């Protein structure tokens, strides 16, 4: 059974049918939020960023929210193949002991542990990844507005309840509660125009890299919001996936270039609160120049538990069993990278491409 599905927009399909696919064709690589699901892309990430994409010798924009931000920052490290292996091992074997009398650790304890993990993982390589000669890193956070500007339990609960209700009526309502912040490393500006929601562009520096990364992964109620990030406007910052869950942006307005999207599913869902709103899961013309790589759903059902790793495993599986299941899933995911390379070596046959 084939593990890899390659989905394309119409503009990308026409390009591949006539010209194939070369590293220099890729201008943007987005990376979704989704926690442990991102583990399934470890071998694809190693192949893309460690071997294939560097052959292009050009500027590529890496955009990520939450675990996607962590993956894209890892891609910009000096040795991405080793760094992705370390990321996968560390994520699989993480375990934060809850405080006495609690079944699960508090948000404060998880935040403290995650802060230390970020420092240990990126600390020595921060300057290098921010000044990568070709990769431009863009880390996404969701900054609170109005009631969510301050990070207090009551305001957070009320604000996110209001956000959930209004978002169901209109995606634009997200802008009443949250502002997209794009923290960008030095160099060429982001080539995708962002006019759909309130957006602020902030320089990503050594002073704000770790706070921005922490905020991009700060799931409400699981971690604490980051109350202020140097260089950004005042206000609490939360998980970038709240606004941009799968980074469904107007890539079709970017010319020239294609978007390469290693993803854990075919659907590119706009915001985290859109997960249950199926009508927002459809592809749009904005994705016409996208090449999306994802696991075959039938192949996924052959994995341990019949699914991708996800956050429910933290509660449903004892740590040793969870670590074993996730390790097996990541090992199996090497097939995705192998099939991707086989497709490239075969000359990028267009007959295997699937519509988005």
Protein described:
This protein is 36% helix and 15% strand. Strands 1, 2, 3, 4, 5, 6, 7, 8, 9 and 10 form a 10-stranded mixed β-sheet that branches. β2, α2 and β3 form a beta-alpha-beta unit. α2 runs parallel beside α13 and α5 packs across α9. It is globular. The two termini are 21 Å apart.
Concise synopsis of the structure shown:
By secondary structure, the protein is of the alpha/beta class. It is 36% helix and 15% strand.
Beta fraction:
15-25%
Ends: how far apart? Answer: 21 Å
Structural class: alpha/beta
Estimated helix fraction: 25-40%
Number of distinct helices: 13
C-alpha-based Rg, rounded: 19 Å
Layout of secondary structure:
Elements: E1 4-8, H1 10-19, E2 26-31, H2 42-52, E3 60-65, H3 67-75, H4 80-92, H5 107-122, H6 126-130, E4 135-144, H7 153-169, H8 174-177, E5 178-184, E6 199-203, H9 209-216, E7 237-239, E8 258-262, E9 290-295, H10 297-300, H11 312-316, H12 319-332, H13 334-345, E10 354-355
Parallel strand pairs: 1-10, 2-3, 2-8, 3-4, 5-6, 8-9
Antiparallel strand pairs: 1-9, 4-5, 4-7
Helix pairs in contact: 2-4, 2-13, 5-9
Keywords:
single chain, 356 residues, alpha/beta, ten-stranded mixed sheet, globular
